User: What shape does this take?
Amino acid sequence: MDNNLVNVLYLSSFVFIPLVMLLGLWLAKSLKQVRGVMVTGSSLLLLLAVYLVFDFLGARAADPTSEMLFTGHYLWFAPLHIEYAVGVDGISVAMLLLSAIIVFTGTFASWRLQPLTKEFFLWFTLLSMGVFGFFISTDMFTMFMFYEIALIPMYLLIGVWGSGKKEYAAMKLTLMLMGGSAFLMCGIFGIFYGAGGQTMDVIDIAFQRGGAHAIDFAQQCIWFPLTFVGFGVLGALFPFHTWSPDGHASAPTAVSMLHAGVLMKLGGYGCFRIAMFLLPDAANELGWIFLILTGISVVYGAFSACVQTDLKYINAYSSVSHCGLVLFAILMLNQTACTGAILQMLSHGLMTALFFALIGMIYGRTHTRDVRELNGLMRIMPFLSVCYVIAGLANLGLPGLSGFIAEMTIFVGSFQNADTFHRVLTIIACTSIVITAVYILRLVGKILYGTCTNEHHLKLTDATWDERTAVICLIVAVAGLGLAPLWVSNMVSTGVAPIVDHIHNAAQVVSQSNPFL
Amino acid sequence: MDYSQFLNMQEEISLLAVILIVFLADLFLCGKEERICAMGNGTALSATACGCGRMNVLPIALMVVHTLINLLPWCGSACTPVEAFGGMYQHTPMMTIVKSVLNVGVIVVMLMSANWLNRPENRIKQGEFHSLVLFTLFGMYLMISSGHFIMFFIGLELASIPMTALIAYDKYRYESAEAGAKFILLALFSSALLLYGISLIYGVTGTLYFDQIADKLQVNLLSIAGLVLFISGMGFKISLVPFHLWTADTYEGAPTVVTGYLSVVSKGSAAFVLMTVIMKVFGSEAFLGLWSTAFFWIIIVTITVANLFAIRQKNLKRFMAYSAISQAGYVVLGIMGGTAQGMTALVFYLLVYLTANLGAFAVLHVVEQHSGKIGMDDYNGLYKTNPKLAFLMTLCLFSLAGIPPFAGFFSKFFIFMAGFNAGYPVLVFIALVNTVISLYYYLLIVKAMYIKTNDEPIAPFRSDCGTRAALVICMAGVLLLGIVSAVYNYIDLFSYGI
Assistant: This one.
């Protein structure tokens, strides 16, 4: 068999496994069978992702030059030059691993979900199929297709199984994200036809005319904002972040985990891979506008989290702040900051999933998420509470956990930009660390310590085995990333380097339109 | 006269054979006593006792054979362009594809209607239903293959007058009769507009053959007026805004199967004909800019107005009417620029739209048959009582809204791509923003079915085999047409630009 086909099949198994899972779920008759299918499938995905990491590291050592490894092409719609093209680099391998961990833990976190368990897992699996497909694709059409596959199940997942004002939140989230994808689709057409209309493959477009000027500068300046905003909506770019708090607060546990943990990363990944990589001149020229917006995201998200009283809202605003940091870092346009951005995606994905899992478990017991009604939980459910403290510490960037590594790399990278504009913004963004510490520590002190005043809460039990599985997996991952960051950051930086080089090779590196320079 | 040129019309001839067989079979299979009996005491007759039961199977079987024969590659006109009667009848391979798409639509509609036609009040007029449907189809065939304005006009009339009878099929139901009257009045009005446009063009060029007109036509006030009247006349048929006012009432009043037929097959053929005729007759550089500008505004208004009106509808047939108007706007996007890519995208869009829309109508129809309910609130909680139907409806709506991995996503993507490539990025952007609005109202139905609760939900029922077969065909289309790229690639082989 030729190499192309092997690679296509190899990476496509990330899509085939969910497809088989969908079929299995469709046929499943009992709750036991549904759970069996989910556990088998998600474990297989996790094993495959881990195997891919080692396989990738080996292949990368053998071939340090090409941008993507395991590339494969299958000509899909020949008249339109649309291919089903797959390939991975350091970034997408890391993202695939993250997704697999979240899907695996999400399965356990929704172990006891009622009612309509089968339907829930059907849509959940469809969502994860979209996520995996997005990360393995290198063709803009397939990326966009999988992107939308990942968005639409959210509507039903939130609308049917959610809580609170779920119908409003589900509709708002879906429409805002779909609005973003309308921008995005326009941007994709612009890139495709601007670059000659011969290929949709990301790598081919980027390097077809030696790089920088595949697309006219004037055109780039039109398509860059469209594409960046399109993905940025999903990455919680201010002022398009408003779907995030409502959506996360209303979603069921596993969906919040998957959505904040993985789906929001699609935004950052897409901005980096498509908007910046394919439109490098415009990224240099117009990046400053979005840099200001993301700076606002970072600080505003953190401040908003301070005044919320709902546990999920706190975490959702904290996500806005942290995901803002991802976009902030990639717009800094240098190797260190961009590596930091990818690390932040991993770190935020893991710890926010941990947070949402814990909040879901606490909510499942106390039936309230209002901070004012919760206190002294440490005595009642020590396991969950300790895990909550760990998640909080990871969130505020304690060394030894994943948050510290990511934020440290980002701020070091950002400060490397020597001009005042970038440095001032970096300093402003740094304040978010302090603000994060404020709301996390206050929160932990309020709900975990002290004495429990609510009599009903005294009878509550600690975590069950399935919940422990989910939480421990995530904590191991968070601590692993924090204690041994180098191998991940090395892997990621091999993927970041070509993209950053490409952006630096652009004709116009210093922005002419930025009034602050 | 050289009779062998009739062979070039073999698709029309084989359809005519189908019509005649159905016509005659109706005469002999449905005996006189049964007619009287059915009129006298309809409920006493069981379906098997009546020969009319067979009347459902026969036309469907014949249509399947007819479709398959015409798709066979060695059957004459499938491969090369041919003409007959000195150019009055013209045929290209693309037209075979479009006619086959229409055939599939008719087969699905007939499958859907089988159970409904077996009802006592309809049993005596089963034959009429099938004959009328096939006559309109024959008219569309002529319209598609015409090379001459008179031929075109005859086809158009043949496609719309029997349609009126179909719309007024439930003639004792007030709404149905009213819808029929509205449709015939507006159809005649639009035909008059169209004829006036044609006569102006005839006045300018002195000929009615498309090819000759294209050579002689100059840009002047008369020919522009002819173009405008032509577009307006066709706009009525496709129900583009501002010529859409008849649509909602007619769709609401007509029997649900007929509404499905009207919204897909009738509209689809008219859209394709609009594209081919405009490309053939007004294909010159000077006219290209004129009609492109006209369509630019028509599309924007059509999509936006229809979407905004659809949001407020509570009756699902009216709702589907506005949804169909906005879909027509997307279809016309393929005409922009008159490119080959646009033609492929348009035909592919029609095919995909056909499966998704007829699937949705099949669900509406079967629910209406079993419960008599058609309001959006009646669909609250449908998933609890009829999960499979609700699920199929969801897939169809997602396909209509353009959500992957369903076929609607691919067709929307391709038609936008064609519009973008033809040089209308702003138009594509506005259309894209409108897809978000359309997603909102499609999700309203999904919300009703899955999320809302209902005190008196639609009782669980088992749908009949005809509807199920129709749904299977539609689902196969919704799930496979996009992913299996061979369909698009095959259509692309035969498309042509100006």
Summary: Residues 36-51 of chain B have pLDDT under 50 and may be disordered. The beta strands of chain B are 82-84, 89-91. Residues 174-205 of chain B form the longest helix (32 residues).
